Structures are given as structure tokens and as C-alpha cells.
């Protein structure tokens, strides 16, 4: 039995195309200990000549049947993301270590309102929280504000577009090109967006913000400016 935190072999059992640049990969580790929504894990690839490369990725869904799900955005000239998205075949093995992180997590026993603010592929750990809430039958109030470049860049588009019986409220904002008929013109996320689509500060929501560095800084500053308690704003960033 693998101890928590040890590297273990993981077989790729499923691949799903999410967008032209994002792919969901489902792995079956040898003995996964489980994880919380919002945590991440390390993936290690080893070439035939012994060269290894390690990257950290957020998990996109709750643990189910011992499986671990990642949604990976292809990075231009990225040796690991490109290989994972384009070349790793079903049945192949990687190594996984985790879960990692205990601050940027949501548990079904948490009852405070939740505001999820995602930029681009920053949706991944937040989608794990949405899926965990749905699987648990939780009625904790959730709102998602998701900023992307264009409609074609929306990860989990079909899932987010379906009516949600649990009352999830979703606002998708576009920075480069909005769909026809959109009331909001393309623009970067701002204070007005979070004021319109977020929770009022006096509701004392927990705010999870994930995305590129600049996005996270802008969103976190806007939330503080609106009166949210900085101690209830949890951030995770990349790039």
C-alpha cells in the first residue's frame, strides 16, 4: 500500500477534449488516498533515457472509485503539458504524488456562502468544488464568476450551461470576444463585475480566486475594495 505523499504509478484510463487547448485526463493510481476539492497533485513523466519532468496540476473532480481527474491546458512550448494533451495514450502510465494543499479547499460540511472567481484554466479546482457540492447534495449557496477570452475558451462549457438543480449561479465574462447578444462588452474582470455577480460582503462569503497572477491580484483587490474580509479570500495562482 502506498503511503500518503509517495509517488505511485497511475494508468491513464480516459481522455476528454474540453476545448481546442484543454484536455481532461483521468488516471487510475495504484492506491489513491482520496483528496479534497481544491487540492492538487504532482505528475511525473519519465522518458526511456531516464529524463524526468514534474508538474503540479489541480484535480478537477472529487475522488471517485479511486480515480484522479486533471484538466490540463496546453502551454505553448510546454514540454509536459503538450505531451500530456497530445501524446500520452490511453493505457500509458505516469506517476502521481499527492494530494497536496489544505488551505484552498472546500468541504461539504462548510456552510458559509461561496464565491468562486476563475480566470481561464483557473476554473479547474473551482469546478472540483462545484462537483463536490453537487455530489454531496449540498445546498450551500454557490456563485461562480468565470472570466475567459472567448466562448470557445470556456472549459466545461456543456456542464456549466446545463440547468443546475442545486442553485449554482454562474456568470461567464469575456475579455476578447463575447457571444452575439451579450449585454456586457468584452473586458477584463473588474470591481463592477464582482459587485454585480458576487455575494454582498455582509453575507461573509468565502471567496476562492484562481487564475493567472495578474487576474488573481486584480480580483482579490476588487473584493477587498468591495468590503470583503481579506482573511476570507483564498487565492491560488499560476504563471
Automatic annotation (TrEMBL):
<dbReference type="InterPro" id="IPR039261">
    <property type="entry name" value="FNR_nucleotide-bd"/>
</dbReference>
<dbReference type="InterPro" id="IPR050415">
    <property type="entry name" value="MRET"/>
</dbReference>
<dbReference type="GO" id="GO:0051537">
    <property type="term" value="F:2 iron, 2 sulfur cluster binding"/>
</dbReference>
<dbReference type="InterPro" id="IPR001709">
    <property type="entry name" value="Flavoprot_Pyr_Nucl_cyt_Rdtase"/>
</dbReference>
<dbReference type="InterPro" id="IPR017927">
    <property type="entry name" value="FAD-bd_FR_type"/>
</dbReference>
<dbReference type="Pfam" id="PF00175">
    <property type="entry name" value="NAD_binding_1"/>
</dbReference>
<keyword id="KW-0411">Iron-sulfur</keyword>
<keyword id="KW-0479">Metal-binding</keyword>
<feature type="domain" description="FAD-binding FR-type">
    <location>
        <begin position="5"/>
        <end position="106"/>
    </location>
</feature>
<dbReference type="GO" id="GO:0016491">
    <property type="term" value="F:oxidoreductase activity"/>
</dbReference>
<keyword id="KW-0001">2Fe-2S</keyword>
<protein>
    <submittedName>
        <fullName>Ferredoxin-NADP reductase</fullName>
    </submittedName>
</protein>
<dbReference type="Pfam" id="PF00970">
    <property type="entry name" value="FAD_binding_6"/>
</dbReference>
<dbReference type="InterPro" id="IPR001433">
    <property type="entry name" value="OxRdtase_FAD/NAD-bd"/>
</dbReference>
<keyword id="KW-0408">Iron</keyword>
<dbReference type="InterPro" id="IPR008333">
    <property type="entry name" value="Cbr1-like_FAD-bd_dom"/>
</dbReference>
<dbReference type="InterPro" id="IPR017938">
    <property type="entry name" value="Riboflavin_synthase-like_b-brl"/>
</dbReference>
